Amino acid sequence: MPEMDKEGKKFYVGVRQKSELFYVKGSTELDWGMKNRLARIFNPKDGKTVMLAIDHGYFQGPTSGLERIDISIMPLVLYVDTLMVTRGILRSMIPPSVIKPVVIRASGGPSILKELSDEQIAMDMEDCIRLGVCATAIQVFIGGEFESRSVINMTKLVDAGLRYGIATMAVTAVGRDMKRDAKYFRLAARICAELGANFIKTYYTEEGFETVTSSCPVPVVIAGGKKIPEMDALTMAYCAINEGAAGVDMGRNIFQSDSPLGMIQAIKAIVHDNEKPEQAYKLYESIKNSK
Ligand code: 5RP
Questions:
Q1: For 26-36, what is the mean pLDDT?
Q2: Known catalytic membership, residue 201
Q3: Phi, psi at residue 92, to the nearest 5°?
Q4: 225-253: pLDDT as tens digits
Q5: DSSP 8-state assignment for residue 8
Q6: Residue 45: in which H helix or E strand, if any?
Q7: Cα angle at 151 between 147 and 155, to 5 degrees?
Q8: What's this model's pTM, rounded to 2 decimal places?
Q9: Which end of the chain is more exposed for a tag (fewer CB within 10 A), N or C?
């Protein structure tokens, strides 16, 4: 016969049970599993994320800096909150002992040789669950040739994700001839959020970026874009955070830097410690020169 429980007295009658609002913007009404996955992406300490984007190979092959992910990228993983990656690289290069949350590239189709907006959903939700990912990522081509299909594909991923508690990141993809300004990103980010994306990736705009973040009901993270001088990339990250971004999802400005280790730590200092660009640059230089 099981031992009888000794009756406790700690009922705290009259002490109201805590019920906290969830800290990730626009996510209070989501289910526990989805919130838990978002909490792994967006650091509960400050609600922000340093996401390292290394998914570029899904449309442009062995991108400069990503030729050998096992050698060049693995040392950076320690400093990131989240990894954004394809399932092919996850399975072949990332040891399963890495317990950082994963945002998985779930769209694809055309290569850089073709019309990029012609993407499809390229991953089943069942495989996302098998891999234990926290969110899917899909390009949305507002204004692009296949605009409607990319939007509807995003909603399909949102629906599948809601079924299993996996978040969706919409990546606002700007066509080659389109203007990357705040007006465009307000439109694109808001459409993606209205149609269910849990967080949005845009580019930073020097003017009006705060209107992109303030009119978007869910978190916005910024891509880094093509490689620019380190000080400029750090300044861009600093401005984005101070104008309402919930983090960065950066790739080339980290892994194409002359010191990827220096850059990732400098970006982290900006995102999580609100370090000024000048101080972050000093950190980058000291790590670069310590080799
Ligand atoms: C590809 C992507 C990339 O992940 C994104 O562009 C981030 O990388 P970068 O900072 O190099 O722009 O979504 O479309």
A1: 97
A2: yes
A3: -95, -20
A4: 999 999 999 999 999 999 999 999 999 99
A5: P
A6: none
A7: 170
A8: 0.96
A9: N
Per residue in 30-40, is it b (16+ CB within 10 Å) or e — as a string?
A: beeebbebbbb
* pLDDT confidence of residue 3: 81
Q: If you search the block for the tokens 């001088």, which residue do you land on?
A: 229
Best of 171, 185, 264, 267 for a ligand 1 pocket test (most atoms within 8 Å of beta carbon)? 171
Indicate the DSSP class of residue 210. Answer: H
Torsion of CA 127, 24, 156, 251, to 10 degrees: -60
Q: How many helices (H) and strands (E) does the chain have?
A: 12, 10
Identify the CA nearest to 154 among candidates 107, 218, 118, 188: 107
Which residues surround ligand 1 with Cβ inside 6 Å? 53, 55-56, 84, 139, 171, 223-225, 249-253
Q: Are 280 and 262 in contact (CB under 8 A)?
A: no
Structure tokens at 267: 């970006």
Residue of the CA atom closest to atom 13 of ligand 1: 171
Nearest CA to ligand 1 atom 8: 251
